[in-house]
């Protein structure tokens, strides 16, 4: 149980007036969800609806404290606003977290209770899969809720969004190679993938097909075994942990597990000259982006390159067409190159250039809601 001072710290962050300096920079709404009988404890954070309903996945994780869960929801929701803006979607940003170990406490009753809380928001928040939740879970949630994406194809959904998430990260990697080495190719490059779960193992597929030399690590031995079995006859190097991977001789480092992988300890140890991965919130705190730039390491902002999944589930809202969604995700290559070019022109790290571009779109397009439409509606 978090103490009073911890809770007041979270409240200060939610209500702090100084956070409102940039367009859409403060969270619009934070909902605490509790159903004692099913054991549900969840947080839904809506960061911005400037561009439309807030779309973002539901993470199911055994947080060390309730404050950690709220902080994660706030960070992830903000990231979704920027991700959706740069992906060209008419959607805002939100995120939800369910507190608990999904392998032991996840039940039909808990998921359906959660679905009712999402439904109570009337469409301000649209959910999808994230760490600890899967397509089958979205099908259960959808039994109580109209605002669910990432459902199974048999239930009218797009299925596993990890497919296009990995594809988008791969496009970002190719763009990074173009900017850093002059050609959009990873053939012969040594690429380290930290986390080969839902997204990472698809990313390995692209890298192997491209002819990259792949190094992987994962806390779960079965994940490593699955990748090796899928690429029988291909040499895939395995290292003990993320620490060892960071220090390995790499061209590209791809964090694909939980956030915070880039910090004051890991950045100085990096051998890779490109960082491009699927994990959300890779920068542990402000200033890390400058540390990377100072070392000559090209950082492809996570919320730019990992947008393929949200592009996929957003396409589901109007009736999913895989080819259409994949074509949109392929544009991550161009967006990533644009951000690198803007960063170079403005003399700022790519993360700063990406933030500026996202904030400009939220402000420019979001302000159109002030134009009143017939019937008194401001859709």
UniProtKB/TrEMBL annotation:
| Pfam families according to UniProt | ELFV_dehydrog, ELFV_dehydrog_N
- Enzyme Commission number(s): 1.4.1.23
Keyword annotations of the record: Branched-chain amino acid catabolism, NAD, Oxidoreductase
Indicate yes or no for the key word Nucleus. no
Give compartment(s). Answer: Cytoplasm
Enzyme class, one word? oxidoreductase
Q: Which residues form the Glutamate/phenylalanine/leucine/valine/L-tryptophan dehydrogenase C-terminal domain?
A: 159-370
Superkingdom of the source species: Bacteria
Q: Enumerate the Gene3D superfamilies for this protein.
A: Leucine Dehydrogenase, chain A, domain 1, NAD(P)-binding Rossmann-like Domain
Catalyzed reactions per annotation: L-valine + NAD(+) + H2O = 3-methyl-2-oxobutanoate + NH4(+) + NADH + H(+)
Entries under SMART domains matching the protein: ELFV_dehydrog
Matching entries from InterPro entries are given as: Aminoacid_DH-like_N_sf (IPR046346), Glu/Leu/Phe/Val/Trp_DH (IPR006095), Glu/Leu/Phe/Val/Trp_DH_C (IPR006096), Glu/Leu/Phe/Val/Trp_DH_dimer (IPR006097), Glu/Leu/Phe/Val_DH_AS (IPR033524), Glu/Phe/Leu/Val/Trp_DH_bac/arc (IPR016211), NAD(P)-bd_dom_sf (IPR036291)
Which pathway does this chain act in?
Answer: Amino-acid degradation; L-valine degradation
Give the multimer and partner information.
Homodimer.
* Homology family: Belongs to the Glu/Leu/Phe/Val dehydrogenases family.
Name of the protein: Valine dehydrogenase
Taxonomy of origin reads:
Bacteria, Bacillati, Actinomycetota, Actinomycetes, Kitasatosporales
């Amino acid at each position: 149980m978090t103490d009073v001072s911890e809770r007041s710290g979270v409240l200060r962050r939610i209500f702090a007036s100084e956070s409102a300096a940039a367009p859409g920079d403060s969270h619009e709404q934070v909902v605490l969800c509790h159903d004692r009988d099913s054991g549900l404890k969840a947080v839904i954070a809506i960061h911005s609806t400037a561009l439309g309903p807030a779309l973002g996945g539901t993470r199911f994780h055994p947080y060390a404290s309730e404050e950690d869960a709220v902080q994660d929801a706030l960070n992830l929701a903000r990231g979704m606003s920027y991700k959706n803006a740069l992906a060209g979607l008419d959607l805002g940003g939100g995120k939800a977290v369910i507190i608990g170990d999904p392998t032991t406490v996840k039940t039909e009753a808990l998921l359906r209770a959660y679905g009712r809380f999402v439904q109570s928001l009337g469409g301000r928040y649209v959910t999808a899969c994230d760490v600890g939740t899967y397509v089958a879970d979205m099908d259960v949630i959808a039994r109580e809720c109209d605002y669910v994406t990432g459902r199974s194809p048999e239930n009218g959904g797009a299925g596993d969004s990890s497919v296009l998430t990995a594809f988008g990260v791969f496009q970002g990697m190719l763009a990074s190679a173009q900017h850093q080495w002059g050609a959009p190719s990873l053939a012969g490059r040594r690429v380290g993938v930290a986390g080969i779960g839902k997204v990472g193992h698809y990313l390995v597929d692209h890298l192997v097909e491209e002819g990259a030399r792949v190094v992987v690590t994962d806390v779960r031995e079965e994940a490593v075994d699955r990748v090796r079995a899928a690429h029988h006859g291909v040499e895939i190097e395995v290292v003990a942990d993320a620490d060892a991977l960071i220090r390995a001789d790499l061209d590209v480092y791809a964090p694909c597990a939980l956030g915070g992988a880039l910090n004051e300890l890991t950045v100085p140890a990096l051998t890779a000259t490109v960082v491009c991965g699927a994990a959300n919130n890779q920068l542990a705190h402000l200033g890390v982006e400058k540390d990377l730039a100072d070392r000559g390491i090209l950082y492809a902002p996570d919320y730019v390159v990992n947008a393929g999944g949200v592009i996929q589930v957003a396409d589901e809202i109007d009736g999913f067409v895989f080819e259409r969604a994949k074509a949109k995700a392929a544009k991550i290559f161009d967006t990533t190159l644009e951000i690198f070019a803007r960063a170079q022109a403005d003399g700022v790290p790519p993360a700063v250039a990406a933030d500026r571009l996202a904030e400009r779109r939220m402000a420019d397009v979001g302000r159109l809601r002030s134009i009143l439409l017939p019937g008194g509606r401001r859709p």
